[in-house]
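Handout, tutorial session.
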Amino acid sequence: MYPLLRRAEILRIAQSQGTTSIAQLAEALAVSDETIRRTVKPLIEEGLLIKVHGGVMLPSHLEESPFRRRMHEHRAEKEIVAQQICELVQDGDSLILDSGTTCTHIAQALRSRSRLTVITNSAAIASLLAQHNGNRVFMAGGELCADDAAALGEPVLAYIRQFHVKYAIVSVTAVDRAGRFMDAQPWDVEFTRAAFGQARRRVVVAVHAKFEHSALVRAMNADEIDVLVTDAPLDAHYAQIFAAARVEVRYPGSAAAPMTVALAEGTEGPGEAAHRSPPRGLSDATCHASTDSIADDAHGEPHHAR
């Protein structure tokens, strides 16, 4: 590739992904890390790129909010995950959807569905899906985070515990080597656990960039979810972990996992026993009384959206 074409391609990748690393650019352009460093150096000097920890980014991204920047990061992978969720969720289904950037991409994809019942703590997601294709959207209220317009706090947890839904769909900060799902903030974990308690199927979404990393708080182990949705096949290590936990793993081209067959035959997955279908004539998202205690939540700290 000619140097001018290489420069243009680097700028295009930076535009689409937000922040990109030297290694990612080298792989995408099939050149060495050193070639990428030589190419980006004049781009930085000309003010077309900014050097950040571990890579480079466009100057325009500094003017965006952190949430909007994260919406650009790994955008293609997040859109793949969103399409997988759109194939899982059918017209008329009910779901709890959390506030991460991956879930916001999911909400955009779900605009092709109709008659959904959606419970969320995200103002952005509520805005995308409300008054659209006959959807019903319930917005959990609480302290609003300035970064991503997500509601936090005990009122949010109490609110979502009123509902019984088919799917709880959440994102995470990281998936560590042991297959544990990790989050950066305790209140993200509290939301996830509350949502999973009200769903027949517990779904985690995570692009491949989240794997092989860790974060501050453990949200759940592999055997505490029903479905993992990602953008590409898992490597042998992770595939073995989630197969042993009987987790259905969905990615483009994936075949139906044994759990899918079991559910179709009427048996219950790990998340089914405590939340059976409501009686005939009641909505899948019918409100019900709850005596669950409300977990303590953190206040006054910046929210780390996923």
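The second record follows below. Compare its token runs with those of the first.
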Amino acid sequence: MRFSTTLLAAAVPLAAYAAPVSKRQIAAIDVTVLQFADVLEQLESQFYAAGLSQFQSSDYTAAGFTASSLAIQQITNIQSNEATHDTALQVSLTDVSTMLATARVVENLGVMAYLGAASLITDPQLLEIAGSILTTEARHQTMLNVLSGTGTAIPSPFDLALTPSEVLAVASPFISGACDLGVPANPTLSITNTGTVSQGTSLTFSSSALNSSVDLSNASCQMLIGGNPISISLPLDQCVVPNTVNGPVAIFITSDNDPLQPDPVNRASANNILAGPAVAFIDASPEVIGQMVRTGTSTAAASNVTTTISPAAAASLASGTDVASAPAATDASSTGTASASASTDASSVGSASNSSSVGSASNSTASSVNDLSSDSSAPFLNTFTGAAGPVNVIGWSNV
């Protein structure tokens, strides 16, 4: 199915912005950005509409909500904010929990997309409109963090911005059919860990770009977090989630360990990205408000949870396989899977106390990463390194 190419300037802002948009010649780059944003609005709107029509009050109660109206009212409010156009999603709406977990990623993707596109828009009036939509998207994200029951409402003082190519890498698994916006998409990256993934877990990945023709001997996994000076760069076979990470993370696979820049303008020219990003939520700091909204998501049971939207996870859910008990991916050579280490046993994860033993990171380097990340006194420790040589950041004070 082809998405409508109705411009966002005509489809969304007129309903969300009091001042009319004057008719004038729009720069080609602005047209591309607005069409791109329109696709995301359609994606979000149809996703929420499908979820609202599929699930009943009893489904929300079964998902642990103290009152089904709490979730239904907020999802309805969010859906009404989005443009209503035809879309196709490759998402399995198997239950309320799955829908809300996916909604967090989709909504956060909207925030990152609008923020990353700000530098591309040349028309001041359109930039103001995009900014007004961005603030609403951010409020949606906060509410969905609360509805998760395990997340931090506002996990970071800064949001992360993605380039259009990076946004499409995340969104493409949700889109079926032709959707040619003239923007090349980065190769899609999937996190293949099954069960609960937490701080201290070794991550495993799959991507068509990670195949036998690609030299992965110096490859790295890079984690971008809003507000960080540079990415957290780790060897691909030692890709362990640091104990300082909380909230949304954009994970890339690169050909070397030269850190990626948080600025999408500079990152757009990076020539070392092999695949990604994959977007994940690491819920390390559940809050009282979330526990009040949803029962059965206590801190002990749900702390340090990562929610991902990988196609592999979606396929597992669609087939009816219990995510917590699904077998881990195995044959890396035949599937294009780049394994950071053995997939973590889901039964041994989910507790903040076992991070040092997770992922079988027994070699000295991986152990070093875990030891450093256990120090909660520094927000981001000595995990920022790169091929440039002098880059060695310990916390924010030395940046």
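Points raised in discussion: The first helix runs from residue 8 to 11.
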